[in-house]
User: What shape does this take?
Amino acid sequence: MRRNLSVVGMASVLMLGAGLWAMGQNNLVANAQQKPATAEVKIDNFSFSPNELTIPTGTTVTWTNRDDIPHTVVSSDDPKAFKSKVLDTDEKFAFTFSKPGTYPYFCSVHPKMVGKVVVQ
Amino acid sequence: MFNEGFLGTAAPFIADLILLLEIGMGMGLLAGTWLARKKRFRLHAWCQSAVVLLNLAVIALVMMPSFHARVLPRIPAKMGKAYYSLATAHGLLGIAAEVVALYILLSAGTQLLPQKARITRYKAWMRRTLVLWWVVLLLGIMTYMRWYAPHFFQT
Assistant: This one.
């Protein structure tokens, strides 16, 4: 009788442990799913790097001006999907792409600087 | 307005166009001065008036909106940086030169100003304004170079 009780107790502890471990795993998966995706584009030496970026829908792209010259990030589409103010050195601009598509953009101060974001 | 320029720098089309236009206007003022020395005063008046009025339009339609969007939000905080300080000096002195030039135009070429408000020593005013105009032009060229051709400033 006592032996049976011990077996039941051990089984209960194991089941409780397994349940807690599974809950923990679910939380980890949920956290990973909730954490928004991000991507970085560096502006330096009169160019966007990477020049072309492919990202999943919902990704937030942050452009950082590492150049010693002011730049902007402006969508080439009409109407414009996004448009930054003039970014001085080390200033950032972020935009979240919520719809799939191809988004070409350029620097309005230096129109030779162009880039593209492909949202899948 | 945001199309690529044609001078081989990173400038947009409009900046290249305005640069050449302003250099042309500076040369036009020198040509007008030469006309005055040749006593062709009527042509001199037309030449200088056309330049001053064309420059007024350029300031109002292109330069002020650009300055308002790109430079004004950064001053005085970023005045230590050449691309803001050059543009600000060019802007302030440029406004002064344009206002004085308009004043000379109104004094010498119209009856709009009352007699008391008119200048009398035209030559001195015109010469000083011409010098100021060319200082502003050179500052404008330096501003262009700093914003659109920065490699010229790198050692």
